[in-house]
Write a structure and sequence with these properties.
The chain has 17 helices and 46 strands. The protein is of the alpha+beta class. The strands form 12 sheets. Strands 31-33-32-35-29-36 form a 6-stranded antiparallel beta sheet. The two termini are about 20 Å apart.
Length: about 800
């Protein structure tokens, strides 16, 4: 590989004085000296660094505190300290340590008293004569014939570099915490038998799997097929050491993978224009998937920073390590647990695994909460219980507790056994006697109400039966006109949809059915799948969405939250969703409805206005999270209505961004989703930009049936826009005549919306202004991600 392909773009002028000033940022002595090679018998002092010929990498000592010195390889010439390999990560050296290239061919790190801290263990082989830094960041010991005797790339730490061989059966190991580089709890291993990579806790429990190698990518890493392949080559090869996986970068960019202390394997690329590392991929995506991440009793929340927290009444077992990200010791109680504890603390939407070696849980059905709580109290080993209204509604839990997770989607409440200390909020404490008293009181009141109610019902039933149909129809109409959501029963919606007979569409969160209410109003009923969300949380979110009223948003009429059923009732849109009119499946009949240019532009503008309302005109900023043609519905007059708020994220006006697990549809996702970064309303702007390209062209943005230069439409659109050839982008056959100025506006707006950096994307308010012609549109820059794809396409053609 040439010098240019290995060196970062910001180090092209190798002036020795500049190189000296840059490298001194990364090591502990301001009087640092640069060494290009280390001959046999020489010593590398604490104030010296061994630098690669291209100036990109340096070997030297760095300090993490008194008597905590390490020999390691770092990137040189960038303002962010980034270490890629450490020799003595498990055994720090004392201040004043040095590296000696002994006459027997060993690299030896020694303390000032000459005690050995680390050595390369190369004695007994052909004695190496030279140590040098390779241009890829590899520390190499060579024989005088040039043969490699030893190299750091064969001794994996936590970072996977281009050109590094990842042999089957070997593994990377995470650091212990953000301030301790010693080997931690997590490892990333290439399996010997199946040629797949896995992430493991304690080298025993797998919590993530890449899928098998299919010859081009690992089957379960979708990013490899779309995002990563434009920047590097992936291969499985063989040599004398066995079978190994290797990757190399294609462009002048610094990049690496690191298994970090939280068990997540992150892929970073250096952004030279902004002088920072950018995360462009991570596995697993949900940090709470990492096994034992938060230790015993700890609770993981993927939407919080940091991910791990202790529940009420608990504290970190080791506070210093906890604050640095070493959560392995978990949380300990602030109180003393004994058999006299008869109080339970409610942890809402929380679930714990019991952990290995724990006593099995005991589950019961058809019993009340008082019995469940009393059974746990009478068993000294019982530490808590789950209780719900399901078929198995009581589950007694025994420790230890690991893999605690909290999220609104969990839908389970855990009652943790505690003492009656004042450190717990009273409204979340439940005493044993309270549960029995509530049960007894509820039973007595119920009997009295049932007796009196039965008598009243007998007297009023006939009158109610006569008036019900008329009054219910009037109430539905009145409620809808006044913006009040109606609560439907499940039976009502079964009847309205003829037992969910006619399906209008389906998605990851549910299916939509056509229905007719008793007043003959046509509706669309969305039946949500796998909804474990509690009734209270579901109603709160529904009531928020029910207040949304805008001509370009589908109006929610009502909902159903009966037992485990969760349904949403919307206005029926006779022209269906936009995707069915834009895209025709192979072999399908031609659409009877043709979208001319005027209609498409009206849809473009209406959709933008609807998203603007969500972002800036509601009480809370609502990030839709799934803008795409199939979520744009069309009424009788083809007025665009943004729909499907199943993934929406509500964000208070006091927040500028929010951490959340990845939502949405691949192909429309903004880069920050893929990088697991906090998102803002600009994520919707990106998705809207990708949708604009499909409205313009009448085809999917990615189409494998197209030619190599047009298969990814946004790239082709960007190239044509730079040449001023906007008319070639329109879906001419159905559009017929089109307004070329409007077409140009839409293309430029789309290109602004899909900028990689969210700060470069316009707000939806500016998008609307640009489309309406009240704001002049500047020429957008060529997005970096599209540049990489352009280079890849050019390379493939040549």
């Amino acid at each position: 590989m040439t010098l240019e392909n290995r060196c970062c773009s910001i180090i092209q002028v190798a002036i020795s004085l500049l190189l000296l000033l840059i490298i001194t940022q990364f090591f502990q002595n301001s009087d640092e000296q640069i060494v290009e090679r280390l001959p046999l018998g020489s010593t590398l002092q604490p104030n010296q660094t061994l630098v690669s010929r291209n100036g990109c990498f340096a070997l030297g000592f760095f300090s993490l505190g008194r008597d905590r010195n390490y020999l390691g390889v770092s990137y040189a010439g960038i303002p962010t300290i980034t270490r890629i390999w450490m020799a003595n990560r498990n055994n720090p050296a004392r201040d004043g340590a040095s590296l000696r290239f002994s006459m027997d061919g060993n690299l030896v790190v020694s303390n000032p008293d000459q005690t050995t801290v680390w050595m390369s263990d190369t004695s007994g082989r052909n004695i190496s004569s030279m140590a040098l830094m390779d241009e890829s960041g590899n520390l190499i010991l060579t024989h005088n014939t040039g043969r490699v005797i030893w190299q750091s790339f064969d001794h994996l730490t936590d970072t996977y570099m281009p050109g590094m061989k990842f042999y089957l059966g070997t593994s990377f190991t995470s650091s212990k915490s953000a301030i301790d580089p010693a080997e931690g709890r997590f490892s990333f291993r290439m399996l010997q038998t199946t040629s797949e990579s896995v992430a493991m806790w304690n080298a025993t429990t797998t919590y993530w799997n890449s899928g098998v190698w299919n010859g081009q990518i690992f089957a379960d890493i979708a990013d490899m097929s779309f995002n990563w392949r434009f920047m590097q080559n992936f291969s499985f090869l063989n040599d004398s050491g066995g079978r190994y996986f290797i990757w190399t970068e294609k462009h002048k960019t610094l990049m690496h993978f690191t298994l970090e202390y939280d068990g997540i394997f992150r892929y970073r690329i250096w952004d030279s224009s902004n002088a920072k590392w950018i995360i462009i991929g991570s596995q697993p995506r949900d940090p709470c998937q990492v096994d034992h991440l938060c230790g015993q009793n700890g609770i993981c929340n993927s939407d919080s920073t940091p991910f791990c927290n202790c529940p009420q009444g608990f504290k970190p077992a080791e506070p210093v390590g906890w604050s640095a990200g070493d959560w392995s010791l978990g949380c300990v109680a602030n109180f003393t647990f004994d058999c006299s504890c008869k109080t339970f603390f409610l942890l809402q939407n929380t679930y714990y695994d019991q952990g290995s070696g724990a006593r099995s849980a005991r589950s019961y059905s058809g019993l009340d909460q008082a019995w469940c709580q009393s059974s746990c109290t009478s068993d000294c080993a019982c530490l808590g219980y789950y209780f719900d209204g399901g078929s198995i509604n009581c589950s007694l839990q025994y420790g230890p507790f690991f893999n605690g997770k909290t999220s609104p989607e969990i839908g389970q409440n855990f009652f943790l056994r505690v003492n009656s200390s004042e450190q717990f909020p009273n409204d979340q404490l439940l005493l044993l006697n309270d549960a029995k008293r509530k049960e007894r009181t509820t039973r007595n009141i119920g009997l009295g109400v049932a007796f009196g109610g039965a008598l009243i019902l007998m007297m009023t039933f006939l009158v109610w039966k006569i008036l019900w149909r008329k009054r219910i129809a009037e109430k539905q109409s009145s409620d809808y006109m006044s913006g009040i959501l109606r609560k439907f029963s499940y039976k009502e919606l079964q009847t309205a949809t003829s037992n969910f007979k006619e399906e209008l569409g389906a998605g990851g969160f549910g299916s939509v059915y056509k229905g007719c209410l008793p007043d003959q109003t046509m509706v669309a009923v969305k039946k949500l799948h796998n909804m474990n969300q509690g009734d209270k949380d579901f109603r709160r979110e529904v009531s928020t969405l029910g207040m949304i009223q805008h001509v370009n948003l589908v109006r929610l009429r009502g909902f159903c939250a009966a037992d485990m059923h969760r349904l949403l009732v919307y206005d029926y849109m006779p022209n269906g969703d936009l995707s069915k009119l834009l895209f025709r499946k192979p072999g399908a009949q031609e659409h009877t409805v043709k979208l001319d240019w005027d209609t498409r532009f009206a849809i473009v503008l209406g959709t933008a206005r609807g998203i603007l309302y969500l972002h800036e005109e509601c009480t809370s900023c609502i990030i839709h999270c799934d803008i795409k043609p199939s979520n744009i519905l069309l009424d009788t007059n083809f007025c665009a209505k943004v729909s499907d708020f199943g993934l929406a994220k509500l964000m208070g006006r006091e927040f500028s961004r929010v951490n959340t697990t990845m939502r949405g549809t691949r192909g429309y996702l903004a880069p920050e989703w893929l990088c697991s970064l906090p998102v803002t309303a600009k994520a919707d702007v990106y998705s809207y930009g990708m949708t604009l390209f499909e409205i313009i062209s009448g085809r999917k943005n990615m189409d494998a049936n197209c030619s190599l230069d047009t298969w990814f439409f946004p790239l082709w659109a960007c190239q044509k826009a730079r040449l001023g050839e906007f008319s070639s982008l329109a879906d001419i056959k159905p559009c017929g005549n089109f307004d070329e100025q409007q077409l140009k506006q839409v293309v430029l707006v789309a290109l602004w919306c899909i900028q990689d950096e969210e700060m470069n994307r316009p707000s939806m308010a500016r998008v609307v202004q640009m489309l309406e012609g009240t704001l002049q549109i500047a020429d957008p820059p060529f997005p970096n991600s599209l540049k990489l794809m352009q280079i890849e396409s050019t390379t493939a053609v040549s």
